[in-house]
Amino acid sequence: MTTIAVTGHMDLAEGSMPLVRDALRETLKPYAAEGDLVGVSCIAKGSDTLFAEVVLELGGRLVVVIPSKDYRHAEVQQDHAETFDRLTEAADEVVVLQHETANRSAYEDANSTLLRQADRLVAVWSGEPPSGKGGGTADTVLAARETGMPVDVVWPEGAARRS
User: Fold this and answer.
1) What local confidence, expressed as pLDDT, does residue 134 receive?
2) Distance CA 30, CA 27 (A)
3) What's the structural domain count of the chain?
4) What is the mean pLDDT of residues 122-150?
5) Which residues contact 118 (CB under 8 A, 6 or more apart)?
6) What is the CATH number of the domain that holds 103?
7) Residue 5 and residue 31: Cα distance in Å, rounded?
8) Which InterPro entries match (predicted)?
9) What is the band of 130 on the pLDDT scale with cuts at 50, 70, 90?
10) What are the C-alpha distances in Å from 115 to residues 54, 80, 110?
11) CB 81 within 8 A of CB 49
12) 50-91 pLDDT, tens digit each
């Protein structure tokens, strides 16, 4: 069994979504072929959601990590709520962290939880360095690499972030 966590940009440009979805599918197919793919995601809008959908499409099991008790109400925007709820219901396991409110500490804890549960990390990442705020995609990639966890960077040609 291979457990793969995801980190990635939330602000993918609209035209990048199919490119990233296809690249994730190609990255995850070898693990799904073994029949034991487990994907771990916070199912935030963008990369996390695309990853979760591809895991399920390939017949894998989904584990959802929710950063705080109020995350669904406080942070999930109306245009993402239906997808968030659908993926939460499709998950084999939903882990709600004990933070009362969604904040930087809750997001950092969620990223640490993802890494603790995984054998490897898939990063939908443009390669930009950390912003200095903590808890972002680059920070999660660096944390994984510091522990020696294998990291697969997915950033297909033509992918872009919204400006």
Assistant:
1) 66
2) 7
3) 1
4) 90
5) 3, 4, 5, 40, 149
6) 3.40.50.450
7) 13
8) YspA (IPR010697)
9) confident
10) 19, 24, 9
11) no
12) 999 999 999 999 999 999 999 999 999 999 999 999 999 999
CA distance linking residue 7 with residue 137, whole number of Å: 6
Residues 6+ apart with CB under 8 A from 28: 4, 37, 39, 54, 55, 58, 60, 122
Q: How far is Cα 69 from Cα 7, in angstroms, rounded to an integer?
A: 20
- On whether residue 159 sits in a domain, the answer given is no
Classified as helix, coil or strand, 110 is helix
The tokens for 88 are: 């939460």
What DSSP string runs through 1-57?
-EEEEEEE-S-B-TTHHHHHHHHHHHHHHHHHHTT-EEEEE---TTHHHHHHHHHHH
- Which tokens go with 63? 């584990």
**pTM of the model as a whole:** 0.95
pLDDT for 98 equals: 96
Whether 133 maps to a domain, the answer reads yes
The Cα 119–Cα 114 span in angstroms is 10
Three-state DSSP at 113 gives helix
CB within 8 Å of 18: residues ≥ 6 apart? none
Q: What is the residue range of 41's domain?
A: 2-154
